[in-house]
Amino acid sequence: MLSVRARGVALTAVLLLAGSAKAAVTVVYDGSLAGGTQTINQQGWLEYITPGGASHAAAGGVNTLNTTALGQGGAGGYFSHVGFPSANVPVEPINAAWPTLNAAAGFTVRFDVGIASEAHNPDNQRAGFSVIVIGSGLRGVELGFWQDRVFAYEGGVANLFTPAEFVARNTSPITRYDLVALGSSYALFAGGDFSAPILSGALRDYTAFDSVAAGLPFNPYATGDFVFLGDNTGRGQSVSNTSYISLTDAAIPAPGAAGVLVVGVVVMGRRRRRAV
Which of 2, 141, 168, 273 sits at 20 to 30 Å (Cα–Cα) from 97? Predict the structure, then answer.
């Protein structure tokens, strides 16, 4: 059984430049291109990597990533950066035009995703699909997706990668999510509705992650401007559908709007769910 503990409430008034002409948008994946048959990696911004148990395909404008072949032991997903420092290959973006994700100035990562199926260990500490966004200052957020919940992972050391704030939500349909970072906080909006976030909290420091123990050639959480979408754990599995990904160098872009918007974002104190 799960319990939830509120840990304070903060109200942040955010001044946001929302004019579409004032924000640069980098479209990382548009499933409608090339007859709707291109996978995410075929558009040149993200690299598809799997250690095993994953497959992907595209049809009808939707990229489907399936990590269920080996049960929860499978993994795979899409990386914005790769490198092998031990072999003197620096960690660099897949595309040299990859933008800077500066939380001080504000940025937005949009991803249109639906979780067709998901399973995870009964300890409820992992998710079969995750989105990782690390800003240029090495603070960011990792979001875990179940079919009935979206949650953020805790950072730091003692509680690293334990579930923190969450929202109950049906994630099965492909839905537009806008992950907005500004200053030291993030807010997640759904369905193109920017009136109120469905989830919000503090940006985290995940750099204590032990990439060597995990068998990775570099530490993604210590890589500025890094983005990942997929299954990054041997304790979960999923089938996910993605139709669009983009990066914007402003907080909460509102296409077609003009001027400055003042948005009050209620950052609910971090709520932790624990298995009991």
Answer: 141
The reported pTM is 0.86
As given in the structure block, the two tokens for residue 95 are 């595309």
CA distance 26 to 148: 30
Q: What distance in Å separates the CA atoms of residue 54 and residue 237, rounded to the nearest whole number?
A: 9
* Domain 2-275 homologous superfamily, CATH: Galactose-binding lectin (2.60.120.430)
Residue 252: the pLDDT is 79
Q: How far apart are the first and last CA of the chain?
A: 6
User: How would you label 20-34 residue by residue, b for 16+ Cβ within 10 Å and e otherwise?
Assistant: eeebebeebbbbeee
81, 92 in Cβ contact below 8 A?
A: yes
Go through the chain and tell me how many residues it has: 276
The answer to whether 55 touches 43, Cβ cutoff 8 Å, is no
Please list the ranges in the chain whose pLDDT falls under 50: 1-21, 254-276
Residue 88 exposed, middle or buried by CB count within 10 Å (0-12, 13-18, 19+): exposed
Cα 151 to Cα 2, 130, 199, 245, 271, distances in angstroms: 13, 10, 8, 20, 10
Handedness of CA 161, 163, 167, 169 (dihedral sign): positive
